[in-house]
Every structure is written in structure tokens, then in C-alpha cells.
Amino acid sequence: MDRSAKSIVALTGAGISVESGIPTFRGPDGLWQGHDPHQLATPLAFARDPELVWRFYEWRRGLVAASQPNNAHHVLVEIEETLSPLTIITQNVDGYHIEAGSENVIELHGSLWRLKCTHCSQRWEDRRHPLPDLPARCPSCNALARPDVVWFGETLDPHNLNAAYKQTQQSSIFLSIGTSSVVHPAAELPLLARQHGAYTIEINPENTPISGFMDEVIRGSAADELGRWWKEDYPKLLDTD
What we know:
With about 240 residues, the chain is of the alpha/beta class.
């Protein structure tokens, strides 16, 4: 198989943004002002107290706005520029892939920088921080707006999910980068890629449920190891074809 002529898919999780200073829900700093984020990122929490949920998301938007994409995000841009096509399927909502310059990005869980009306379903981008009013309102109908992210208990956008499945099945190299591989259906994608003949690589500091099924496992941070893989390991992979 000529991998240079085939597509590469990169699935990214929270671990790719850790070195940009973005904490994960499951990390040691997993509480926000005494609240469990898992209890705030839900439709029920928003219905109960939209202002509290918005304050949580404003805090998250502030963290992202004060930082920037790291080396791992930029390496993926370099790979895309060198070996089109590259598809990034991300579970992250920070928007760093797009900010870094990646063009073919499927945001499975939405974006912190988009808002959605709870009445007319209009979506729009708003990168102001802080937002002038909390909770935010729709500019068209003045109904309550919410972050355009997928909350716990909600289903993924079928268009994005179908695109992710399609790209995964067509990939020849599949990179799983910085994801705990416990959130479904994203956790199924590396295994689906392998079933369809892709060479699968996991880059993660720790063992995950999919580690034993990957063709190659690289232990370390995405910011360090992705660039090394691209410069050193990828050329060797081509030599084996």
C-alpha cells in the first residue's frame, strides 16, 4: 500500500491541548468553583441555572483565549500542508486546530466559540471574551442561547459523525492522539480504522482501552512525540511499503 497517496486521519482528545494549559474534565483539577463539570455540561443543568452554566463556559473560553495552540497542533498543520488529504476528527471544543491553520477539521463535540439559539436553532460564532451579557441571547429572536457544544446526555450531530466514520474507513494511517478512548462513539474510531486496513498509532502518556489493539503505541506527550513521529517514524513507515 502506498501510504503517501492515501489519507491520514488524526483523532484528537483533551491530551493534545493540555500543554496549551487547558485542563481536562478528568484531571486532578477537575472541579470548578466547587462544581463538578460533569454536572454543569448537561441540558438539565442549563435548564436549572443557565447563568451558572454560562459562567462555567465563560471561564473555559477565557482559558483558551489566554493561551494558544501548541506544537502538536502546528505539526498537524504541517502534515496537512505536506500530505493532503489529512482529516482531523477532534473531541475538543477549544478551536485550536482551526486557529493553528488546519482546514479539514470535524469538531465532533462542537465549539466553545459558537452559540446556538434554544428557540430558532440559529448558530453563530462569537469570539468576544467576556461576552457582554450572561446568559447570552439570540441576536435574531432574543431567546436564550447556549454554547454550541455537545453536552453529556446529548447525541452527536449526525452529519459530523457520518463524516467521521467515512473518513476513518477510508484512512490508510490513523493517529489517535491524546484521547482517553473512553468516550463513545469516538473511542470506536481507531478500531474501525484498523478493521478497514489502516495502520493505527496511539500517542498518549498513559495506557488506554485501545492500546492493546493498535499497531504502534508511542508513550509521551503529543507536543513532544507527534513531531518526532512525523520527522523520524513516518519516513520509515513509507520505506516498509
